[in-house]
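Re-run with default settings, no changes from the original entry. Doing this only to confirm the output is reproducible before filing.
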Amino acid sequence: MVRSFVVTGGGRGIGHAIAGRLLSDGHAVVSLDLSEGLFDGPGARTRLVIGDAADEAVAERAADAAAEAGAFTGWVNNAAVFRDVDLHDVPAAEMLRLIEANVAPAVVGSAVAVKRWLRSGTPGRLVNVSSHQAQRAVRGAAAYATAKAAVEGLTRALAVDYGPAGIRVNAVALGSIRTDRYDDRMDARMAALHPLGRVGLPEEVAAVVAHLLSDESGFVTGATIPVDGGRAAQGQDPESRGF
């Protein structure tokens, strides 16, 4: 039977690349997004659910669609909100709201998927999309960095809680990836932050996610895999800053 997967934020960018890779591997994919985005159109192996990934009712609709499309096997928590704020410039409640906007979709999606897999006895696979910022913050992105650190903590906790049920939970921590949000004017500066000398491609992220959703990664859980061209491994050389 065809396996089916839910990808949140699957209408564009990295999520769209993940959905495309899973489709090319012969799976069925449900894209959960706020809008149609780049959705390729309905088909035997594609479904679209429009709505907020942090809304449990919407997430349940996506899980229903996945169950109709095939053997519901995996969920990718990719949806994210990108907004830089400084703690001294906004009310604390606003900072908390932005943190929640990035954590809530991962919690809700994981909860909906895990409950279904427990009921059916399915050894499901969760993949959370994180960032190098979870470990190495970028100035001005406190809300995003905090949220991604929480997502990585959630990844480890769920792996421990549900490993005995055969449910694997992993994360990918991304460096700079060339999507429609990428600013070409920053290309040289961004490339220099990565030991490989360039930014990543959505398809490169999709390949790692597909591996984590596959049987080939059957003994991998609770892990955060850097997909960052070495960015998190590279410390800034003081000599390069003229110190």
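The two ends are 61 Å apart (CA to CA). The CA atoms of residues 3 and 182 lie 32 Å apart.
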